[in-house]
Please model this.
Amino acid sequence: MGNVTVIGAQWGDEGKGKLVDWLSNRADVVVRFQGGHNAGHTLVVGDQVYKLSLLPSGVVQGKLSVIGNGVVVDPWHLLEEIAKIGAQGINITPDLLVLADNAALILPLHRDLDQAREKAAVNKIGTTGRGIGPAYEDKVGRRAIRVGDLADREALEAKIDRLLAHHGPLRRGLGLPEFDAAGLLAELGAMAPKILPFARPAWRLLDQAVKSGKRVLFEGAQGALLDVDHGTYPYVTSSNTVAGQAAAGSGLGPKGAGFVLGIVKAYTTRVGEGPFPTELFDDIGQHLGTVGREFGVVTGRPRRCGWFDAVLVRQSVALNGIDGIALTKLDILDGLPTLKICVGYRLGDQTFDYLPAGLKAQSALTPIYEEMEGWSESTAGATSWKDLPANAVKYVRRVEELIGAPAAMVSTSPQRDDTIMVRDPFQD
Ligand code: IMP
Model:
């Protein structure tokens, strides 16, 4: 079918933005299908750096970009991001951006709730504080305000009342002030003319696009281990992040996902709280964080760093139906004399070749490592296998073997063209 779905195979921040930007060259339409502005996608194009959170990365290449129904949309943030990218020379018009009319909105009360809960919680999730979880709760609770509702002021008023009947007691319980319904109605009314020009039945546009032979690139956010079902629950985000969600979150149907490309970092990182079996608390962890510039795009928080966990990624390959991976940030391992790869876990006298579902077990696992010799040469900027030291090639081969998926690409710097291409996912 010629479509490609890009997903993060670990805990997010695998470098999806660069790969999506690179692949959008070959696509006609780029679609976000889950998450919201909790995502942070950094695109480096020459001397320009674009930081996107909600807009599909396709906008940078001028490709038709769709925010699908599976995304939760903060309309204030969307307008800010459009203005920010506009100031960098990219004019986002309704010809370039389509917003699903049935996507649920993130409102200021969702952000309030997210932040107040995190503040009050003993066991914090470490959310981005952007209201993602509460917005999905309201969507599933059938009381969300959706993009299309902005067109009907009367219906909007009734919906706000219904929403506040739910949020009032929650706010009081957390010591938050009463929410100003009239103020929200007025703000949404003022915002509507700026948002509605982008609103369309995105499913229909995608259906027509595919029927006329267009190629769709689905851009996942976060990573498989943050999936609300399959991740390290409850330390997860509130959406399904796995490739299967590309269908439900866009309305294109399950055959539309095409080639599933898992983005895999050559080591492991995570932001926020939760289990992380291969986390390093030593100089090597520090080194990976510093050299890899591991700071969150959205929150600026330092990311936790650790060795590559082949068990997690193998699980991810299965959960997402990954056809091939793009291995990123191999160059960050340059100069480390010995590399470790986690190949299993120990828990008491048991061993596991997968991540057990329980939080207690996940938190108590000890990794079983295999060691490999590192390389001293630089791999940064390599564009072909022959540019890589033998031990770096061995590392990639061992990763492929352990996770059960081939490398379709190896990314060797944030720059668009510093990529070793093995197999073009769009040609598959
Ligand atoms: P939320 O998505 O803001 O509710 O945060 C829930 C968890 O997902 C936290 O651990 C966040 O750090 C993590 N998270 C959310 N978005 C991203 C992302 O784009 N990259 C990495 N972690 C993320």
The radius of gyration is 22 Å.
